[in-house]
Amino acid sequence: MRRTEDRLRGALLGLALGDAVGAPFEGWPRVGGAEVDAWLDDGARLRWTDDTHMALALAQVLDADDGALDEERLGDAFAAAFAEQPWRGYGAGPPQVFALARRGLTYREAAASLFGGSGSFGNGAAMRVAPVALVARSDLERAAELAAAQARVTHTHPEGVEGAVFVATAAAVLATSDAPVDSMPQLLRTTTERMSADPLRRALTEVLAAAPDVERLTRVARRVGTGVAARESVPAAVAALLSGHDVVSTLRAAVVLGGDTDTIAAMAGTLAGAVHGASDIPRRLLDRLEAAEQLEALASALLER
Ligand code: AR6
Ligand code: MG
Fold first, then answer.
1. Judging by beta carbons within 10 Å of its beta carbon (0-12, 13-18, 19+), is residue 100 exposed, middle or buried?
2. Phi/psi zone of residue 225: left (φ > 0), alpha (ψ -120 to 50 degrees), beta?
3. What are the φ/ψ torsions at residue 289 (nearest 5 degrees)?
4. I need a surface site. Which of 36, 45, 192, 240 has the fewest CB within 10 A?
C-alpha cells in the first residue's frame, strides 16, 4: 500500500518535474542529450508552465469537491488560474473557452464550439490529468470518467478527451500493478484497447509494439510526431516511458524527442512517476522545482481521500 502511495505521489511530482525540465526546449525540432544533461545538472530553479498550473487547479478542485468533479467549478478554477498568471504558456484554445464561459456558455459548450465546432484535439487535457489517478487509484472506470469530465471543460474532440483518459488510466494501472517493470507494454496494451479515437489508438499500438528496442521506440515516436496534438504527444510520452529506466532517464528520453518537450515530458513524468515512485526522484531536482512543497501537500491531501 505504501508503495502504491509513493507511486501515485510520483505521478503528480513527475508531471511538474517533466514540465519544468522540458520547458526550456519547447519547440526545438531535436534536442541533444548533452544539452538536457547540462540542464539537469544546472542549479537553476525549475519553473513549470501551464501544464502544472492547470494540474494544480484540477487537484485543488478534486480535493475541495471530495473527489467528485463539478465541471463549472473546475472551469472557473482554470479561468482564475489563467487570469492570475496568463504568461505560463497556455495554448490558444483554453483562453477562448474562458472568454466564452464569461459570456454565459457552459464550459463544455464553449469548448465544443472551438476549432469550427470540432473541439480541441490538443494535449492540454492529458498533460494536467495526473491528480485524477491519485483520487481514483485502482478504480479504472472512475479514473476514465473523471479524466473525460475534466477534459471536456476545455477539450471536447475525441482525441483530446481520450488522450487524457489514456494518461489517467495508464498512470493508475502502472501505480497499482505489482507486475514487473518489463511487463509495462502488456499493461499499457490493455489500457490502449479501451481507446476508440483511431489515430491515437493506432499510434499507441505502434509504440507499444516497438518496446523494448529504444532505437525503434525513438523512430516510431519521430514518425508519429511530437506536436501539441494528443495523437502525437501522448504516444511520444509512452515511447519515452518505455525508453527510460527511472524517472530522470525517462524525462531525458522525452526531451530529446524535441517538439512539445514540456508537455511530452510532463506526461512521460506522470507515467514514469507512477512506475518508479516519488522516492525515485532525486532530492536535488525536487529542491530546484517550483512549488514542490505545495505539490507534495496536494498529493497527500488527494491520497487521504
Ligand atoms: N483543429 C485544428 N487545430 C487544432 C484543433 C482542431 N480541432 N485542436 C487543436 N488544434 P489548444 P492545449 C491545434 O489551443 O491543448 C501549451 O504550450 C491548434 O493549433 O486547445 O491546451 C501547453 O504546454 C491549437 O492552438 O491548447 C501544451 O504544449 C493547438 O492545437 C499545449 O500548448 C493546441 O490546442 C496544450 O495546448
Ligand atoms: Mg506547457
1. middle
2. left
3. -80, 125
4. 45
* Domains: count for the chain: 1
Reported as a single tens digit per residue, the pLDDT across 11-29 is 999 999 999 999 999 999 9
What residue's CA is closest to ligand 1, atom 25?
Answer: 92
* Predicted TM-score (pTM) above 0.85: yes
Separation of 1 CA from ligand 2 center, angstroms? Answer: 32
What are 212's three cell numbers?
523494448
Per the structure, the complete domain to which residue 177 belongs is given by: 2-303
Query: Atom of ligand 1 at shortest distance to CA of 51?
Result: 23
Question: Ligand 1: does its nearest atom lie under 6 Å from the Cβ of 115?
Answer: yes
Residue nearest to atom 31 of ligand 1 (CA): 91
pLDDT digit string, tens, across residues 98-110: 999 999 999 999 9
CATH of residue 292's domain is 1.10.4080.10
